[in-house]
Amino acid sequence: MIPTLDIDPFCQAFFDDPFPAHAAMREAGPVVFLPAYGVHAVARYDDVRAMLLDWGAFSSARGVGLSDFAKEKPWRLPSLLLETDPPLHDRTRGLMDKVLSPAAVRALRASFTTAAEALVDELLAREAFDAIADLAEAYPLSVFPDAVGMPPENRRFLLPYGNMVFNSFGPRNDFFQAAVADAEPVLAWVVAQSKRSALAPTGFGAVIHAAADEGIVTEAEAEVLVRSLLTAGVDTTVNGLGAALYCLARFPGEFQRLRADPSLARAAFEEAVRLESPVQTFFRTTTRDVAIGDETLPEGSKVLMFLGAANRDPRRWDRPDDYDITRKNAGHVGFGSGIHGCVGAVLARLEGEAVLTALARRAAAIEVDGEPKRRYNNTLRGLSSLPVRLRAA
């Protein structure tokens, strides 16, 4: 019999401290039932990863949020990347993997590195600042839109847009309502930015629209894919950077290890994504009767995957609650896994490496200098404010 747990994974108390509930779900069994939303949930690493890899049994096309697109009209246009299955997904994801190819990302390394070094130098001169607004948000907003080919005006709209999208994967609660309260100008701006005429002739956006000329996607699909990129390329990075800065400030010994060997910057970013899991949850819908452990879920069951719980599962990780930048953390599910793995992960990793390398080479210490404040979102885990003090090397 599937255990029933009285857990609300979309309330403020849960967001403030999800770890006891994560542990309770992992201990209860491979799959549990959450009556608050009438959904099943998995929190153990092996089960979450197996779901991520089995798109045939656990569909994304019926929505990766609480809404079942087979039963209700979506509030928003479904993502052509996150919320499609093959064969449509093969076409759209194949294009995006080409747009964000290793060669295309490598070409950004020099400019991203220069921008990271300049920003860290500026913040070192200030000493005290907000690591979220002044670094985790400021850096991606300074480099990513240029890579897409966006004009400089109103780039700040990218943050509330992402907040809206990721809140929409949960219930229509107060967090969702607050996120969409001023949606009209933000959505109008994002729709305008995704059009070919708004984008520079070079950049990721232009490459996506060029695929429409080749018949790989339609012009309308190209615009939707640009919008998907705007979501994938900002929020993952902002929250990943915020997690890394929070970890390095709380674990000063690990920052000193990073200073001693700046080549660990990528690993330090990756470990922060594992530990803090900026993307905490996603849903899937069963396409048939599916076995999880000894239990069988009927076709049409909504199943909530707790990526954050999987990334701290002691069945998979030794000392799962520790931040260890030398940990072998390959296989964490902080960016998802399988065909629906985060398309923006390659950019997040590049930006995380650039910022943490600059910090390792220029700063002697980073310290929390005030009360951190959490940003509440139905899908994302991150901070809205992290006052820090940075000491120059």
**Overall 3D shape:** globular
Q: For the record, what is the CATH homologous superfamily label?
A: Cytochrome P450
CATH A-level architecture: Orthogonal Bundle
Number of helical stretches of at least 4 residues: 17
CA radius of gyration is: 20 Å
Tell me the β content. Answer: 5-15%
Give the overall pLDDT as a whole number.
96
- The CATH topology is given as Cytochrome p450
How far is it from the N-terminal to the C-terminal residue, by CA? 58 Å
Helical content stands at: 40-55%
Strand order in the sheet with the most strands: 1-2-8-5-3
Largest sheet: 5 strands, mixed
Please provide the ordered H/E string of secondary-structure elements: HHEEHEHHHEHHHHHHHHHEEEEHHEEEE
Low-confidence stretches: none
Question: How many distinct beta strands?
Answer: 12
| Category by helix and strand content | alpha+beta
Oligomer, anyone? single chain
Whole-number count of domains: 1
